[in-house]
UniProtKB/TrEMBL annotation:
Record function comment: Part of the high-affinity ATP-driven potassium transport (or Kdp) system, which catalyzes the hydrolysis of ATP coupled with the electrogenic transport of potassium into the cytoplasm. This subunit acts as a catalytic chaperone that increases the ATP-binding affinity of the ATP-hydrolyzing subunit KdpB by the formation of a transient KdpB/KdpC/ATP ternary complex.
Coiled coil (UniProt feature): none
HAMAP family: KdpC
Gene name of the record: kdpC
Protein name: Potassium-transporting ATPase KdpC subunit
Any Pfam family matching the protein: KdpC
Subunit structure, as described in the record: The system is composed of three essential subunits: KdpA, KdpB and KdpC.
Lineage: Bacteria, Bacillati, Actinomycetota, Actinomycetes, Kitasatosporales
Gene Ontology CC entries for this record: plasma membrane
Keyword Cell cycle: no
Transmembrane segments: 20-42
Keyword flag Coiled coil: no
Amino acid sequence: MNNSVGNTARLLGAGLRALLVLTLVCGVLYPLAVTGIAQALFNDKANGSEIKDKSGQVVGSSLIGQTYNLPKQNPDDPEEAAKPDLKWFQPRPSNGLGSNSVNTQYSLILSGATNRAGDNEDLIKWVTDAKAAVVADNSTATYKVKPEDVPADAVTSSGSGLDPHISPEYAKLQVNRVAEQNNLDVKQVEKLVADHTSGRVLGFMGEPRVNVLELNVALKALAR
């Protein structure tokens, strides 16, 4: 009986010591080490790749796309379509993901692909309507957009629906409209796009791209 109690006590003591050691190593030391390394070597990425405006205020993350729409006429109407604010560079579309039907008190960001085939009628209508809108929105008195000049990323969403980038072609297509809306010279806006165009990763991976949020932050500073 005494041996049984002693063995149980030793097992409980060993288990408690193991719990304390593993809690210290895995729950305290390891997280502190990883956090310290991340803050020292990858400070920007570890803190969410935040983008700040000229005043130092955080306006978003370079990893997540944003919409630039005008305020709704009736904020309580879920059926009212959002209209783009044409003074800003516009991102890729992100429609087709549905809406929050669980708790309509909150507006949730839904991320994901539409998963519709190329011959799906809904997808064809979205692309057709989006192309017509791009042509209409970006044509000015001195610059007319041709339907064949509209790039694919202007009328289709990414796999997540939250892509923060657009192609240089789509950014250039918006230059004349943005310049007109902000009373800027077209050459100024063209340079802005060129300065915010990133090349392929390591020179061969991916495609050239423009971060819309970074571009609009620079546009805001230029327009003032």
